[in-house]
Every structure is written in structure tokens, then in C-alpha cells.
Write a structure and sequence with these properties.
The chain has helices at about 55-70, 80-95, 95-110, 115-135, 170-185, 200-205, 225-230, 245-255, 280-290, 315-325, 345-360, 395-400, 415-425, 440-445; strands at about 1-5, 10, 20, 20-25, 25-30, 35-40, 45-50, 140, 150-160, 160-165, 190, 220, 240-245, 260-265, 270-275, 305-310, 365, 385-390, 405-410, 425-430, 430-435, 450-455, 470, 475, 490-495. By secondary structure, the protein is α/β, with parallel strands linked by helices. The radius of gyration is 24 Å and the shape is globular. The termini are far apart. This is Aldehyde dehydrogenase family protein.
Length: about 500
């Protein structure tokens, strides 16, 4: 793979099936029962990799390896040493050859086009660098207590073995959201990537030794729901970090409950994009495109409920329709291609089914709704950017997460209307407000029930900024300093500095 830093020329390096095992205790092994499964290239609908299928017995082996690594030394590594490992991992991920390599594998696994895959891959290292700094600065505190001659302080300690169950839409990035703070805190990790798109995570695992990550500190067990369920319910796991659907998140929480295992959940969403008449309409429409059509709409934060003030509704609809119809499909390795395929066949059929239901319920299909005429193959899982008008808040398209490139426009007449419509959902992951009115911005931000609110932008994330959902969108936090609470437990220490005997029946 060669090319400039800005637009490298990437290609598919495989003539036949790539082959991957399980990564446990620093070595590659087959599944205990010898089982395998295929990863399918979404652009062609054909298998491109054969992957070992981990099951409960393999999960047992991986958790045991993580426990040995934790008890055997990783938990006692100094903050500077953990930071150095994360910095070396960041240096490896920042190399242009590694950026290109991981981008190609995400493209083949998920259907992303090169412009998106490379952009994501270039951001991976920033999570390692940020949490290297956190590892060295994260600390407890001294506590002023009323008892005389007593020194009291708290220290954060790692929880132990972390199970990271990750999704198929952005596998490496969302895995790093869990892995980096877990390692910074001194935990070991067992990753269970989605069986739909496991290969890029396995390719990432090939880099760990080069970065000096000790054997057993990071393990990867690809597999299906049975592997995920075994990991969530495993008595040797101290914390489960999950990203996926709300329904599966509930199952994970139930599985972890018997062991009282800590759980953090980043789940689904049905995010509103709220456009006021004073907004920059071109900017707002571009934000809807970014928030709903980028990555094929396969984002938990997808802004698929487009709430538009009635006075600018038709203008927004016309501009959004024109932009949707201009989206370029083509070879995913072509930098001119703007949108790729959905990641797997079941999601493809689900999205088309949701579109048919919307039409049956009376929504007006303005554009899209089927395979685009310019799709690069006839066998891939491509869906054209789809825009609906005349959407009512009770329609399935307005209440259920689509996870595809489908936007539904709904008019509103006032701020109060917009707030009521935006919050009329069991989800609370994200929202966006498009306005140039500072007072309105403040009122809307205060009123919206969402963990993230973007104003005049969409899809912006950073390792430094906490990310998490309200209501049915999840529990706990990812990113930022707050996430360290998810991966540490606090120990409070009391030291009596007065050698004189105390009255045993007094607390002070």
C-alpha cells in the first residue's frame, strides 16, 4: 500500500480467504472445538476471512489468562510504566503503514469507504496518548475528617479483569474507548468483538507485542452470542463494558447480575436534529447528512429524527433531498466514493423492512428507499440515502432505531413543541440544535434529555470528552476523566497519627 499521507492508495491485499485464530495469552490459538465462521465483505456480499469461533470454554481460557496477567504483575505496574505502554501503542497506531492496514481491514469488515476508514484510523492513536496522560495523573485524594490526629486518604485501584463486548459498526474505535482507560487503570482485558465484523480487532491484536503489551493483558475471543453471554456471566470477570443494542444490553446486565459484576452500557438512540428558522440552513443540512447518512447511518447517535421549524421545513426538505440524491457510491477504495454498504445482510434486510413499514404507515418517501442505481455491485448491502416527509411522531420510523441511512422530517411550531417532540422517546443518547440564537441555544441545551448535545455541528467526539446515554441509551460513561470511575474501585485509608490509646467506645 502506497500513497500520500492525505490520500493513500489502498487495495484489498487478499486473493483468497484470510485466516485468524483466537488471541489468548499473547499467542494465536484455534478454538477448542475447531469451529470457525466467515466474515463477509459487505460490498460484495461474499466471505473474505475465516475466523476461529470462540465458545464458553475459550472464554474460560481467556479469562484465566487475563487473571494470571493481572495477579502476576500488571496490577502492580507503576503509572509511568502503564503510560509508556499506551504511548508505544499510540506510536504504533500512528504509523502510516498501520493506519492504512487497519483502515483496509475495517473496510472489508464493515463496508466503510476509504475516506471514512482512513479518517477513523488516523484518530486511533489519540485515545492511547490521552489515556497515557491520564494513567500518570489519575489519583485519589486526601480527605479532611473531623477526627483529630487522623490522616485519611483514598486511592483508586484497578477492578481486575474487564470484559469488553464491542459492536460491528466502528469496531476498533469503540474497542479503544474501553481498552485504553482499562489499561491506564491497571486492568487486564478480554475483548469479544462482534461476529459480524471481528477481523479488524484481531488485526489490531497483532500489534500488541510490538507495543510491549505483556501476554495475557489483552485477549481477543471472537464468537457469537454464546461467547458474549458466557463472558458477561463469567464469575472471573470484574467489569463488563458493552456497546450495542438496548435489547442486548439488558441481556448483558441480567447475565452479570448474579455475580454482581460492574456493568457499563452504551446502547441505542433515536437522536433528534432540531433546525430553527434562524439556523444556517446549508450548515444544518450538511449536519443532517453527516449525522444520518455517514457510515450508512449505522451510528448509535444517528440524527434520524429531523425536527424542522414549519417556516423552513420545505426549504430543508428540498436541500436535503438534493444532497441525498448527490451522494456518490462506487468502489469503496476510491476516494471519491462517499458512502459504502451496510455491514451485514440482516441489517440490510432490516433497514429495507423499516422503509416499507414507513410507507405503509403513511410517511411520504421523497427519495431513496432501495438499492442505489450506482452501487458498485449487485450483491452488496447498499441502501440509498432515504428521506421521508409527513412523518408522525407515533410512526415506527420516528420511534425505533433504524441503524441505516434513513431520515424522517417532522415540522414543529415553537421551542416548546420541539422540546416535547425531541424528548418523546425512551432513548437519550444525543441531540443537535441548529440555531444562531444564543438564548435559544441555552434553553434548548438545558431542556433536552440527552447525554450529548451538539450545537451547529454533529458527530464530534474526543477522548477527552465524556460520552454516555440517558434513559434506555445506557448506563455509565465512556471517554474523558469520568470513565476512570468505571475501571477503578476506591480504597479509603485511615491512619491514626497519635500513639496514645483511645477510648474503645468512642468514634472520635
Amino acid at each position: 500500500m502506497t500513497g500520500t499521507l492525505e490520500r493513500p492508495t489502498l487495495r484489498n491485499p487478499y486473493d483468497g480467504l484470510a485466516s485468524y485464530g483466537l488471541f489468548i495469552d499473547g499467542v494465536w490459538v484455534d478454538a477448542r472445538d475447531g469451529g470457525t465462521f466467515h466474515s463477509v465483505d459487505p460490498t460484495t456480499g461474499r466471505p473474505w476471512a475465516e475466523v476461529a469461533r470462540g465458545r464458553a470454554v475459550d472464554v474460560d481460557v481467556a479469562v484465566a489468562a487475563a487473571r494470571r496477567a493481572f495477579d502476576g504483575g500488571w496490577r502492580r505496574t507503576g503509572a509511568a510504566e502503564r503510560a509508556a505502554v499506551l504511548r508505544r501503542l499510540g506510536d504504533v497506531l500512528a504509523r502510516p503503514d498501520v493506519v492504512e492496514r487497519l483502515a483496509v481491514h475495517e473496510m472489508l469488515d464493515t463496508g466503510k469507504v476509504v475516506r471514512e476508514a482512513v479518517g477513523l484510523a488516523r484518530a486511533f492513536s489519540s485515545w492511547c496518548y490521552y489515556y497515557a496522560g491520564v494513567a500518570e495523573s489519575h489519583r485519589g485524594s486526601t480527605i479532611p475528617v473531623p477526627m483529630r490526629d487522623t490522616f485519611t486518604y483514598s486511592v483508586p485501584e484497578p477492578v481486575g479483569v474487564v470484559a469488553a463486548i464491542t459492536p460491528w459498526n466502528s469496531p476498533i474505535l469503540l474497542m479503544l474507548w474501553k481498552l485504553c482507560p482499562a489499561l491506564a487503570a491497571g486492568n487486564t482485558v478480554v475483548i469479544k468483538p462482534s461476529e459480524v465484523a471481528p477481523v479488524s480487532t484481531l488485526e489490531f491484536a497483532t500489534l500488541l507485542a510490538e507495543a510491549g503489551v505483556p501476554p495475557g493483558v489483552v485477549n481477543v475471543v471472537p464468537g457469537g452470542r454464546d461467547a458474549g453471554a458466557a463472558l458477561a456471566a463469567h464469575p472471573g470477570v470484574d467489569k463488563v463494558a458493552f456497546t450495542g443494542s438496548t435489547a442486548t444490553g439488558r441481556s448483558v446486565m441480567h447475565a452479570a447480575a448474579d455475580n454482581l459484576t460492574r456493568v457499563s452500557l452504551e446502547l441505542g438512540g433515536k437522536s433528534p436534529n432540531i433546525i430553527f428558522p434562524d439556523a444556517d440552513i446549508d450548515l444544518a443540512v450538511n449536519g443532517v447528512v453527516s449525522g444520518c447518512f455517514a457510515a450508512g447511518g449505522q451510528m448509535c447517535t444517528a440524527g434520524s429524527r429531523v425536527l424542522v421549524h414549519r417556516s423552513v421545513h420545505d426549504e430543508v426538505l428540498d436541500r436535503l433531498t438534493a444532497r441525498a440524491q448527490a451522494v456518490r457510491f462506487g468502489d469503496p477504495f476510491d476516494w471519491e466514493s462517499e458512502m459504502g454498504a451496510l455491514t451485514w445482510s440482516r441489517q440490510y434486510e432490516s433497514v429495507l423492512g423499516r422503509i416499507r413499514t414507513a410507507v405503509a404507515e403513511g410517511a411520504r418517501l421523497v427519495t431513496g428507499g432501495d438499492r442505489p442505481a450506482t452501487a458498485p455491485t449487485s450483491t452488496g448491502f447498499h441502501v440509498a440515502p432515504t428521506v421521508f416527509a409527513d412523518v408522525r411522531p407515533t410512526m415506527e420510523i420516528a420511534t425505533e432505531e433504524i441503524f441505516g441511512p434513513v431520515a424522517g422530517l417532522m415540522p414543529f411550531d415553537s421551542e416548546d413543541d420541539a422540546i416535547a417532540m425531541a424528548n418523546d422517546t425512551p432513548y437519550g443518547l444525543a441531540a443537535a440544535v441548529w440555531t444562531t440564537d444564543l438564548g435559544r441555544t441555552r434553553r434548548m441545551v438545558d431542556a433536552l434529555e440527552a447525554g450529548t448535545v451538539w450545537v451547529n455541528c454533529y458527530r464530534r467526539v474526543s477522548a477527552a470528552a465524556p460520552f454516555g446515554g440517558w434513559k434506555d441509551s445506557g448506563l455509565g460513561s465512556e471517554n474523558g476523566l469520568e470513565v476512570m470511575k468505571e475501571y477503578t474501585r476506591s480504597k479509603v485509608v485511615w491512619i491514626d497519627t497519635n500513639p496514645d490509646a483511645r477510648d474503645a467506645f468512642r468514634l472520635a
